[in-house]
Amino acid sequence: SIDAVIFDLDGVITDTAHYHFLAWKQLAEEMGIHIDKEFNERLKGVSRMDSLELILQEGNRQEDFTLSEKEAMASKKNEHYCEFLKKLTPKDILPGIRDLISGIKADGLSIGLASVSMNAGTVLKALDLESVFDFCADASKISKSKPDPEIFLTACKGLAAIPNRSIGIEDAEAGVSAIKTAGMYAVGVGSTLKKADYLVNATEDLNWNEIKEAFQNWCLEN
Ligand code: BG6
Ligand code: MG
């Protein structure tokens, strides 16, 4: 049986992954560093400061700044990002997500959130989804960002759910790794997430009955 379903936020529930990319791109370009969508795959699920380090590495600039300069750069990126968030409304919930949530709720299962974003609360509020989650594991509750399993394990604990009876849903490579290391069943959104146990191209393809069936088969095999 299933204990809980735990969602990533950015890129799964809403397309804020794209806003993170645009905000980083703006900051990177101000420093003469070019980043594209392919590079951005490596930033998904990664904390703000770790993302900045990856971008500086990409431009061979990692030794050029002091910690306080880096902190100022990270806040600047966040200001760019928060400008995008101002436009966010419940209409920005990705296709298929409402039906998925309704299906999970209809089965009486707990729903959790696992997002390393310090803006997770603001995003959920803008989408009017705060009441959906029985427990939210966010940046304030963890010390290590994905691919470390800490955030998913924290969400399982908060929901009193056993990891190998729980499902995680992710759009990031780092996120799928975190789910698998936690011992959970991984649903991946995005065709490149080969390590996921169940893979769909986009959120509109998430079908609760099919996921449940695939999860039951996985349980029999494991
Ligand atoms: C994750 C995103 O959810 O949150 C990352 O996938 C982002 O792209 C990270 O860097 C941290 O977000 P924030 O809002 O704290 O800068
Ligand atoms: Mg994500």
UniProtKB/TrEMBL annotation:
Binds 2 magnesium ions per subunit. It is found in: Cytoplasm. The keyword Cell membrane does not apply. Coiled coil: none annotated. Substrate binds at residues 8-10, 24, 43-48, 51, 77, 115-119, 146. The active site is at residues 8, 10. This is Beta-phosphoglucomutase. It comes from Cytobacillus firmus.
